[in-house]
Amino acid sequence: MQLDGRVKTLHPNVHGGILARRDQSHHMEDLNKHGIGTFDIVVVNLYPFYETVSSSASISFEEGIENIDIGGHTLIRAAAKNHKDVLVVVDADDYPALLQFLQGEKDSEQFRRELAWKAFQHAGAYDAVVSEWLWKQSMGGERFPPSLTVPMMRGCSLRYGENPHQNAAFYVDKSLSAVNVGGIATAIQHHGKSQHIPMDSAKLIHEVSDKIEYNEMSYNNYLDADAAWNCVSDFKNPTCVIVKHTNPCGVASRNDIIEAYRLAVRADPVSAFGGIVAFNVEVDEDLAKEIREFRSPTDGVSRMFYEIVIAPTYSEKGLEVLRGKSKDLRILEAKKTEKGMLSLRQIGGGWLVQDSDDLTPQDIKFNAVSEKLPKERELSDAEFAWTCVKHVKSNAIVIAKNNCMLGMGSGQPNRLESLRIALRKAGEEVKGASLASDAFFPFAWNDAVEEACESGVVVIAEPGGSRRDNDAIDCCNKYGVSLLFTNVRHFRH
Question: Is-contact 479 454, C-beta < 8 A?
Answer without folding.
Answer: yes
